[in-house]
Amino acid sequence: MVYRFGQSFGAVIAVAMMLAMPGVSTAMSEPGNVKPSLKGELIFPLSNKHNHGSCVVEMPDGGLFAVWYRGSGERHADDVAVMGSRLKKGSNVWEKEFVVSDTPGFPDTNPCIWVDPKKRLWLFHSTILDNEWESAITRVKVSSTYQKQGTIPVWQLSDLVLLKPGPEFPAAVDKDLEAVWAPVANAMPGRADQMRKLLDVQKAKAHNKLAVRLGWMTRAHPTLITTRAGVKRLLLPLYSDGFDFSLVAYTDDEGATWSCSAPIIGQSNVQPSILQRKDKTLIAYFRDNGPPPQRIMQSESTDDGVTWTLAHDIVLPDPGAGVEGLILKSGRWVVINNDTENGRHSLAVSVSEDEGRTWLYKKHLERAEDKPGYGTFAYPSIIQAHDGLIHATYTFTPGKSGSPGESIKHAVFNEAWLLSPEGREPIK
Predict the structure, then answer these.
(1) Which residue in 393, 391, 396 sits closest to 412, CA to CA?
(2) Cis amide leading into 293 (omega within 30)
């Protein structure tokens, strides 16, 4: 087996392993006298361009702002730009999409947005320098003029999020990679030498300054917390396809300076989404790029995001696709993702009533199981608006895999739909 630069470390191990191996709780009240509702629409007509990686926020005026990236491909296509559109409150027709950010001659990908307490819109995205994910650099833009339909946001700030992992980073990578991958190697008779070579490649990169300062990419919404010391801290979850693990960039001064957490390492845990429990413990959920079983992965931090536990599997399946978590106003936690171990043909919202300690049931937004190979619905973003409605956006590809026609779909539902028994499936 050849390990190529840019190939997922977890994917390599997964292939090696395959070759080697022969009552729902009602602790929280349901919304009373509210009729379950689920509806949705495409943000724009099906396009022959690649449209992917959406993120949505509610604007101060009650409307929605969504972003995604569009181009002839992903990192290998230099025409990729960040696009955007707005939806007026009460409408189901999105305005004509427009360019939000474009670096001419370079792919701009993986946008995420956030509205801060000052009502400013923050845009983070990755610009790919040499058409490989490992060359990504993170950009940040901030606008206070972005709500008016038919206009393009004016960015009052445009900067880079430059990360400089501390001198303890290589040693932490060495230690944690051993902790999570050595048991895998031991379970693969005859392949221990091969595993050791793969680990050595990863460790060597952790000792290379350029490798650890580049390649960190955005995906899910940032999370604003109040630290135990009373400081407002913005957490920007990041991941690396080159390392196949994650970390968190954070700022305590509204983006003037950025610090870097310790690496968050597991068996290929990427694209984190961060929630905070009432006791201030941070929970990060990850896409699983590693060997089977394919599950959403989880890590915890008890020091405001500076250090994290090793990432581990939880009960929810994941095929190696985007995941996002959300805390509802009711206190329930939800996670939206492709709820399979293979394929993006099913998109579900799973519910927890104990801050993610257990997961009880799920409801499906999309399903194409009756037509294998048809329909993919992926990379979801999820929010709850001030009126209580829950909004999700995701890549919508209704045809056979590889066929033209792709859009970003917006789905809106209420908590009554999420809790209604019709179509509800227990999580085993």
Answers:
(1) 391
(2) yes
Sheet hosting strand 269-276, strand order edge to edge: 269-276, 282-288, 295-301, 312-317
Least-confidence region, from 52-66, 170-184, 265-279, 347-361: 170-184
Q: Report the distance separating Cα 149 and Cα 88, nearest Å.
A: 8
* Token pair 């693969």: residue: 188
Q: How far apart are CA 40 and CA 21, in angstroms?
A: 43
Tokens of 409: 């779909």
Q: Are strands 333-337 and 323-327 parallel, antiparallel or unpaired?
A: antiparallel
- Half-sphere exposure of 267 toward its Cβ, with a 13 Å CA cutoff? 25
Q: Coil, strand, or helix at residue 127? A: strand
Sign of CA dihedral 3, 209, 237, 395: negative
Judge contact between 349 and 394, C-beta under 8 A: no
User: If you count them, how many residues does the chain have?
Assistant: 428
The three-class DSSP label of residue 167 is: coil
Tokens of 174: 């060495």
**Quick check: 10 and 377 in contact, CB under 8 A?**
no
Q: What is the pLDDT of residues 170-200, one digit of tens each?
A: 999 999 999 999 888 888 877 778 888 888 9
Both structure tokens of 18: 């395959």
Give the predicted TM-score (pTM) of the model. 0.93
Give the helix/strand (H/E) hosting 409. Answer: strand 407-413
Q: For residue 70, give the nearest of 99, 41, 32, 36 by alpha carbon.
A: 99
- How far apart CA 32 and CA 264 sit, in angstroms, is 41
Planar angle of CA 326, 330, 335, nearest 5 degrees: 25
Taking the chain, what is the end-to-end CA distance rounded to the nearest angstrom? 36
- What is the rounded radius of gyration, in angstroms, for the C-alpha atoms of the chain? 21
**Coil vs helix vs strand at 197:** helix
DSSP structure string for 327-347: E-TTS-EEEEE--SSS-SSEE
Q: What is the average per-residue pLDDT within 165-172?
A: 95
Of 96-100, 336-340, 368-372, least confident by mean pLDDT is 368-372
| pLDDT for position 370 | 59
Which residue, among 277, 171, 198, 285, has the nearest Cα to 239 in the 3D structure?
Answer: 285
DSSP state of 189: T
The 10 Å Cβ neighbour count of residue 208 is 11
- Reading the block at residue 416, the tokens are 């009554």
CA angle 312, 240, 408 (to 5 degrees): 95
